[in-house]
Amino acid sequence: MTLSRRLLLSLALLSLSGCASLPPSPAAQSESGWLSPLYQDHPLVGRIWRASDQRFISAEELQLALSGKRFMLLGEKHDNPDHHRLRRTLLQGMVAEGSLGVVSFEMLDSNQQARVDDLGGVDLNSAQVLQEHLQWDAEGWDWNFYGPVLTDLLTAGVPVQAGNISRDEMMTVYGSDLDADVAAVMDAVQMEQLNKDIDESHCGMLPASQFPAMVRVQQSRDASMARSLMAAPESTGKRVLIAGNYHVRRDLGVPNYLVAGLADMPAAAEADIVTLGFLEVSAESDVPADYTEAFSATTPYDYLWFTPAVTTEDYCAAMRAQ
Question: Cβ contacts of residue 256 below 8 Å, gap of 6+?
Fold first, then answer.
């Protein structure tokens, strides 16, 4: 398995499980400022790679590039604290300049939207109160990662959208056909790759008979996130998605549904979308292209921001041991 396939496997496993481990304590932060402990001295750590011209750029150049886009899809490896820290800094800059229109979270589902919209009397400075009000899934999504940025946005009055489908909606999709407009977005080559990734993300342990249902769930989640970015039409400014790296991929994720348009939403121009993946480095390579291997001519991410890694755990070994 190539480096990029192993990276894809770990991303998909975390995306499907929806789990994030506890972040290191403040005392664990290194002198370099990185929270993730592994490979802090790797040559790619802290560097930003632009796919269009295959070169490294500065943080200032990235901010300038992001400023001209209507849709910003910001990825993460769910359990990496540096991904959350860097992304929060980007969003804080946008809050300060008043450029945010809507921010959608994979970590919030459709059942929570009414609670997001009704914050009257809720103490936004109390993490416990806010979690209880939102019915936050603390088992699936560590509040220490997502609470600070969510509180930033709500305090600033930035509209927040629930990007994900609910558990009930997931079970409905699992047992029935997709809406025709969602099913039509992916072509045969993309569908073949989604099936392969579902297989790899389950370490070859999932019966092939379940592949179609799992792919339908993945497609429904991505379509839901695309729709959430089109919500609050009265809001001006950037429309930002916070989601796992796999969801923000140009070749397989949410951008496809934005560009295609769905029955209840207009199509977005491809040039209006930018994707930023936050990726952990590997000891096996210091070549950016090794991290961006795609199955098609479509580059998965427009930009990559490299960070240290959290763990070298073999996810498949852990799954097989369960």
Answer: 185, 186, 190, 222, 250
> How many degrees, rounded to 5, is the angle at CA 132 between CA 225 and CA 81?
60
pLDDT per position as a tens digit, 231-245: 988 888 999 999 999
What CATH number is given to the structural domain containing 269? 3.40.50.11550
User: The whole model's pTM is what?
Assistant: 0.91
Under 8 Å between Cβ of 189 and 296: yes
Question: What's the pLDDT tens digit per position in 80-104?
Answer: 999 999 999 999 999 999 999 999 9
Residue 149 lies in domain: 3-16+42-307
Asked if the model's pLDDT at residue 30 lies above 80, the reply is no
Q: Give me the phi and psi of 213, to 5 degrees please.
A: -65, -45
Q: Is residue 32 situated within a structural domain?
A: no
Which parts of 230-266 fold into alpha helices (H)? 254-260
| Residues facing 303 on adjacent strands | 50, 276
